Fold:
Amino acid sequence: MNIRKKFEEIVRIYFPKWKNWRSWKVRRTTEGSECKESSKTIVFNRNELEKDAVDVDLLFIHEITHAVTQDGHNQKFLNRLKKAKTTASQLHRSELENLIEKEIEMVSKIEKWPDYLKDTIRDIVTIDNPDISWKELVEASLSTP
Structure:
């Protein structure tokens, strides 16, 4: 997959008003996917890029939302994800629309957790499973009784 082309496609469709996208770089990594605002770089985990196309689109939308909103998982971030969900709906991409809705629900829940708890969980789990994504970690945490 050409990640630059995928980045440009997602920007064109879901973030058409974002003016600064050309100054951003995209890279692959063996670590977790993340938006690095200081270097204007979005890194994508190689394993996550091999998932189904709709999951990859969600990954790009999530990380680009960080770049656009330049903040963590706050209300501004959630509002921008909602706009992407509306676009997916308008394009009749119901599977992506549903995934974005689940992402919004998940992010809303974890944002209520204290930072020390999020960091502790991530540290403990990634020692045993270094390839786990934050999303997989949170989904596992939320589904545990």
Observations:
- The chain has one domain: 3-110.
